[in-house]
Write a structure and sequence with these properties.
By secondary structure, the protein is mostly beta strands. It has an 18-stranded antiparallel beta sheet that branches. Strands 1, 2, 3, 4, 7, 8, 9, 10, 11, 12, 13 and 14 form a twelve-stranded mixed beta sheet that branches. Strands 5-6 form a two-stranded antiparallel ribbon.
């Protein structure tokens, strides 16, 4: 949430600061503004339009000439990605000595971009060489990376490294031969993407031109609605009977409601192979980004060259590895001599000497101090060293969890620490301690993790192959596992409902995480846990269990609940890509479906476990692109508890009591409002990317985007787990148990909504339960991209409006920090 906001904001601030002296540069040069000449508007027609007829022929030729119609294809691919400070001044500053030093340093390593004509200063540079192979029989594409080289000025900041990885994922090759092109985490209709493209774009034949000695017809295209997410530009088509694309120049219109974008150009050059197929041999992208007007721009340069095409048969063993790509062990061991000869063209002095630039930059006291502050703010932790040339071995944090407040603990203080890969690339340790001033208890935990695969940055690096052992003595909510952030995060203390259903627990856990490169992962865990109930009234009395929410059917309080269980989770995420941070990692490729199945087995009598239970849960998640109508995210889930268990081991819905919107949670459902032993849920969110709001002229400035959602849940509580079904009819405390029925594991359910009454009355609770014909439903409508970092959603509850104590929770406003293009 807030961390993402700081990451985007301060990182670009750092980039600007490296040449901050140029902010006051007294250069008198000015760029000539763009002049637009508007012609009389003519109604566009597709029928009988010669440009549309020509595009149809290009689309037909595209299908015939694709290299993927061949049985086998292989080629070499050189990829270069540069992140840089944009618009570096080439004038000489004289007013201030410090300014002069930074100006000279910037000019020394800056170079002029061919496309924009502006000086840019490299900040991060990466280049790879790979062999791409394709087999038509099963449409398998594989990439074998044979060489890799990367350098960064800000690699000392862990979160910046993660953001650099995000840029690598944002800027991927645009394949015009596909129906849709995905870039900047947006889906664009290809200008030659079939009938969908013809309906989406307007085309116009401009003139004929020569491209590399070939006569071509130049065709202009742009979205029929300028506010829609689409490309604009020109296609140069061979002026012969082949109708093949020779070159294309694509732009993303600035009015297309994409954040931070001030310029985006793609230039692709195509060639015809000896087999007659057509292939893109050069793909160059230039993006200019700016977070705020008062900040310097960023320049992103993505340059790909393809060569050495072959159509020979490829042995099957070359395809026999998991995942889409594989990196050779010696990929990062090549010297400068190798790269000098392997590059298809030369690179600038600044790109080839980033390490020297980094050293000179860190010799400046101002920049050293700025980096030290950034390491604390962006990484949300305090490192053990502020030397900008060294990585911290131990970090203290997270800082956003240092101070917090909740109903049970009151105000609380928390300190934590974790080791990094700089201390040991295989062994990681973390721990924390905290104190609640209301319950006056010290809590904490520690985890020791051994990474079988050597880690470069974090234990969360893909693929995870970790063995962990942990001990925790803390307090938790029954729905806390569903929250995205640490439960001690200060913002989660902003809640719309009190929560008195927490328990103190001690847990001993051993787990193993094993991921494969093809997206298949396994997680196995052994957990021994003891839970002690928190008094429902939040009072410390002489009898600590007088107001315990654990209570047997005969009304007697239960002082603890011990469990021992084994769990296994299997998940398949084909094409998954991860960006790892210190605390967790983020999925960058959300287009692929996610399949998950999990099962937990409780073992009675083993290490003090008091219950046998079996809980099975399956999940399916999918993102669907709806062309100009945005994107639809759906999450379907179902589960069943097979055994008779206490209410705390039943299925507890994913309630969110915070004002901060959390994904995959119900935002108007009280804690433990619905307890069941089988359920099915659906959570759907439709992001229209401003399709409707763009109709308002004011949105050209605001760039707000709308989103709608619906969360539904069906559930059922079987008789064996429903305490109501274990009693003969009669008034509450005077009810008698039904003879011959198994009551061993059933507990009374706490009426946690009640704040007054006698103990027997206080603890008797007949569960609300689900009507089999009526699901729980809440809907939402929201506006996001407010100031580019903020979203507001209105939630309305539609069913079970008369459940206990929910009169004030039929609707609510939720907030969230989120950044997207």
């Amino acid at each position: 949430m807030l961390k993402r906001f700081f990451s985007a904001l301060i990182t670009i601030l750092l980039l600007a600061t490296s040449v901050y002296a140029q902010k006051h540069d007294d250069s008198k040069s000015r760029d000539l503004g763009e002049v637009t000449i508007k012609a009389k508007r003519i109604k566009y027609k597709r029928k009988g339009n010669p440009s549309v007829d020509l595009i149809r022929k290009v689309i037909l030729a595209k299908k015939r000439s694709s290299i993927y119609t061949l049985p086998y294809v292989s080629y070499d691919k050189y990829r270069r990605l540069t992140l840089a400070q944009n618009e570096v001044s080439d004038s000489t500053a004289t007013q201030y000595k410090r300014k002069q030093h930074f100006t000279d340093l910037a000019r020394k390593y800056a170079y002029r971009c061919e496309e924009t004509g502006k000086l840019i200063l490299p900040i991060s540079f990466e280049e790879t060489i790979s062999r791409e192979i394709y087999r038509k029989s099963d449409k398998t594409r594989k990439s074998i990376i044979t060489a890799r080289h990367s350098e960064s000025v800000l690699d000392v900041i862990s979160s910046v490294e993660a953001m650099e990885a995000i840029f690598k994922d944002l800027f991927i090759d645009v394949d015009l031969f596909e129906t849709r092109a995905k870039i900047l985490r947006q889906s664009f209709v290809s200008p030659v993407g079939g009938e969908a493209a013809i309906q989406f774009y307007h085309y116009a034949i401009h003139d004929t031109t020569m491209v590399d000695g070939d006569k071509c017809i130049r065709i202009f295209f742009s979205p029929s609605n300028p506010r829609n997410m689409g490309f604009s530009g020109t296609l140069s088509v061979l002026a012969d009977s082949t109708y093949r694309i020779k070159q294309c120049h694509i732009r993303v219109p600035l009015q297309s409601n994409i954040n931070f974008l001030e310029g985006f150009d793609i230039v692709q050059t195509y060639d015809t192979l000896s087999t007659g197929q057509q292939m893109c041999v050069r793909n160059r992208m230039i993006a200019q980004l700016r977070v705020f007007d008062w900040m310097k721009k960023m320049h992103v340069e993505h340059d790909v060259t393809m060569s050495n095409f072959k159509t020979d048969s490829i042995p099957d063993e070359q395809f026999n590895f998991l995942g889409d790509s594989r990196t050779e062990p010696s990929a990062e061991q090549h010297d400068s001599t190798f790269w000098h000869s392997a590059r298809p063209d030369s690179i600038s002095y600044g790109q080839s000497n980033l390490s020297r630039f980094k050293q000179e930059l860190y010799n400046k006291r101002f920049f050293r101090n700025l980096v030290a502050i950034a390491r604390v703010v962006i990484d949300n932790s305090i490192p053990t060293t502020f030397d900008p040339m060294k990585k911290s071995k131990v970090d203290f944090g997270p800082l956003l969890s240092t101070i917090g407040k909740d109903d049970i603990e009151g105000w609380k203080l928390r300190v934590g620490a974790t080791t990094t890969a700089a201390l040991h690339p295989h062994l990681f340790a973390s721990g924390y301690a905290k104190y609640g001033f209301k319950d006056q208890r010290v809590k904490g935990g520690a985890t020791l993790t051994w990474c079988i695969k050597k880690r470069k940055n974090s234990i969360n690096d893909f693929p995870m192959r970790n063995i962990s052992f942990s001990y925790t003595n803390d307090i938790h909510s029954p729905f806390g596992k569903y929250l995205e952030n640490n439960r001690d995060n200060m913002f989660l203390g902003l809640s719309w409902s009190s929560n008195n259903t927490e328990t103190y627990f001690q847990s001993y856990k051993a787990s193993i995480d094993w991921e494969l490169e093809n997206g298949l992962s396994f997680r196995g865990a052994f957990n021994r846990e003891s839970n002690t109930p928190v008094p429902l009234r939040g009072e410390q009395v002489n009898d600590p269990y007088k107001y315990s929410m654990y209570r047997s059917l005969d009304g007697q309080p239960i002082d603890h609940l011990n469990t021992t269980d084994l769990s296994l989770l299997i998940e398949y995420r084909p094409g998954a890509k991860w960006i790892a941070s210190k605390v967790k990692r983020h999925l960058t490729n959300k287009n692929a479906p996610i399949y998950t199945i999990a099962h937990t087995v409780g073992i009675k009598g083993f290490l003090g476990g008091e219950y046998n239970y079996n809980f099975t849960e399956i999940t399916y998640t999918k993102r669907t692109w709806l062309d100009a109508w945005g994107v639809l995210d759906a999450r379907l889930q179902a589960g069943i508890q097979w055994n008779q268990v206490p209410f705390s081991l039943l299925i507890i819905p994913a309630s969110n009591l915070s004002f901060i919107r959390n994904k995959n949670t119900f935002n108007l459902m009280q804690s433990m409002e619905f307890l069941n032993d089988r359920y099915a849920s659906a959570m759907i969110r439709w992001n229209l990317n401003g399709k409707l709001l763009n109709l308002l002229p004011i949105n050209r400035k605001l760039k707000w985007r709308e989103a709608f959602g619906i969360n539904m849940m069906w559930g059922y509580l079987s008789d064996k787990n429903n305490p109501d079904k274990h009693f003969n009819p009669g008034p509450g405390p005077d009810r008698t148990l039904i003879e011959g029925m198994n009551h061993e594991n059933v507990m009374l359910m706490p009426d946690f909504y009640k704040n007054e009454g006698e103990p027997d009355e206080y603890y008797w609770y007949s569960p609300s339960g689900f009507d089999s014909a009526k699901p729980y439903i809440e809907v939402s409508a929201g506006i996001h991209n407010i100031f580019r970092f903020f979203s507001v959603d209105y939630f309305q509850r539609l069913t079970y409006m008369h459940n206990k104590n929910i009169s004030n929770t039929n609707w609510g406003i939720r907030f969230r920090f989120e950044v997207s293009f």
